[in-house]
Amino acid sequence: MTDTVLRDDDKGYVERLMRELSDGIDKGSVPASIFGNERVYKQELRQIYGRCWVYMGHESEIPNPGDYVLRKIGEDDFIVTRDANRNVNVMLNACRHRGVQICRTDRGNTHQFRCLYHGWTFGSDGKLLGALMWKQTNGEAAKEDNGLVHAAQVGIHQGLIFATLDASAPPLKEYLGGIGWYLDLIFGLNEHGVEVIGPPQRFVIPADWKSPAENGAGDDFHLATLHRSAITLGAFPVNPIENMKGYHVQAAPGHSLSLSMAMSEDDPGPRFIGFPDELTESFNTSAISEDQLAAARMSRVIVGNVFPNLTFIALPVSEDSNKPPVAAITLRTWQPKGPDHIEVWNWFFAYKNATPEQKQRSYTAGLGTFSMAGLFEMDDSEPWMSVVKTGRSVAAELLDMKFNYQRGLPGLGIATKVESFPGPGVVYTPRYEEGVQRNLYKFYADMMLAPPGEWPDAKVAG
Amino acid sequence: MTASAMQPRDTGKEGTAAMVEETLCAFNSDLYAEVAQWLTIEAQLLDDRLERQWLETMVSRDVSYVMPMRQTTFRTEGYGFLDDMYHLQETYGSLETKVARNETGSAWAEDPPSRFRHFVSNIRAYQRSDGDFGARSALLLYRMRGDQHVPTLISGERRDILQRIDGRLKLLRREILLDHTVIAAENLAIFF
Fold this sequence. Notes:
The complex is a heterodimer of chains A (about 450) and B (about 190).
Chain A: H1 8-24, E1 29-31, H2 38-47, E2 54-58, E3 67-73, E4 76-82, E5 88-92, E6 107-109, E7 113-114, E8 121-122, E9 128-130, H3 134-138, E10 153-157, E11 160-164, H4 172-176, H5 179-187, E12 194-196, E13 201-205, H6 210-216, H7 222-225, H8 228-232, E14 246-252, E15 255-261, H9 277-280, H10 290-298, E16 299-306, E17 310-317, E18 326-336, E19 342-351, H11 356-369, H12 377-391, H13 394-398, E20 402-404, E21 416-417, E22 426-429, H14 435-449
Antiparallel strand pairs in A: 1-20, 2-11, 3-4, 3-6, 4-5, 7-8, 8-9, 10-11, 12-19, 13-19, 14-15, 14-22, 15-16, 16-17, 17-18, 18-19, 21-22
Helix pairs in contact in A: 1-14, 5-10
Chain B: E1 22-24, H1 30-47, H2 51-58, E2 59-70, E3 81-90, H3 92-102, E4 115-128, E5 133-144, E6 152-165, E7 168-178
Parallel strand pairs in B: 2-7
Antiparallel strand pairs in B: 1-4, 2-3, 4-5, 5-6, 6-7
């Protein structure tokens, strides 16, 4: 179990480190010591995971009343239910009597969660329905006041369920800000919408959650280097240099994404991420605007990160050199398990009106490329594992090591700001820059320094 | 997507699961000896990283090679394996792509390579009524990388169908049933 106790002198140390980050981020300077750092981590559990909106799952995972899944906020277990009134509830997995874990299976359907200790029974909306011999033990005390503890707020965007433990957090729509427009390019392409293909794959890797989160926020460069083997095998249909055409978007404070886009009809590569034509014919403006549909059409890859730790990837891939690539949609959370470990939760999605063959092909291709046995993802944990070691090293601390996040700063590199783009946020092209990552760390520092009950007046990195 | 029923999973060929019977072979039979030998030689090829040789000499071109996902469920709901969700869902083509990946020189997950050892035990051999052979074995996979001092241990059962092709036994189907729901290995760049 992680030691999550936060001591007063630790808070001072973390605050100094965060001010260093805050002061340096606009110049592309990030202290190595924020990674794999136990003291920083304890603060993150409170200031980031205890305050921001965290992804809990998709509505299609709990379609019917009584359905539930067991998920996490930070390291803590929450039951996510669809109650009898079809509302979504997010509740701490703990009996009100003695704090015993009441839900012990990964998913199921019930309207009664019964605690194994003294038999307290809760409904799918968390209300205490009954407890053995209540009158003899608690007399006329009201059962309704003894229900499960709910997250402070629950919100849903395009079927994606989020929750926060902070009552002072802005509503979900405001929190997502501009990234909502871009999520629609993946999830809002027709009136049918998407569904999960199944429950998430889970695996543990020794990394700091910030490494994969910033990678998802718009690191396209590593395709040619880290994923060279997959490119060589034809797992991805666009040449890595050509693939750098597109846009980096700082959609809102903390939330960044990246689009590989064909810039003209003559540019190669698939349209609509590589979805089959029979499916793309059903894409329309029933849920999105003409501008959004046009942007989705020219997109080859859409990859981004909703702060803190929800990465979305839609791209054309193949698991087999002999088979042509097809579009796969994967969502994953980098769930923290200590300063130097994460559990990856990996979901695959398909459009509801895709044929069973299309869904199967998309799933097989996605699983074979973006999963713990995937041609791409197998290599991703390699660098992240060692970032943790560097971050927590005494050498990095004593030598005051700073990482270089300078790409794309004014005067550096060929990326330039795009003045008129159909979507919201600050946009650069081509994708040779790191403002998308500076945007993540800028908001991260703001949240780490924000006093309780106050939400920072945050800006994108720019 | 439902968890498996009460019975342990059947490794019948697609669509014929209900029709093929498996008869356990005596442990002192020739068939048992042949299957046990086959599994041991296979383990050695994989431990020695002779993956292409393994693929070309021991795996059928029609192979189905899967590792289903597993969840925690109550006793009455079975063993927790999912019917349509996987960690691995391989054909000959995708296995060959993975073997080729390790040959590119940029497959960082296994370059420098791990040191593996496949501990194969609890072997059972079956004669199938369609003429193929069944094999079940327990696997403990020991993996060490770099200068780690704590190994990764992955435990599970393999349920195989072996087919005799031109006199040689080849893997037609493998189902890898792990004892894990959350897998604590940073990748599955592994042949099980």
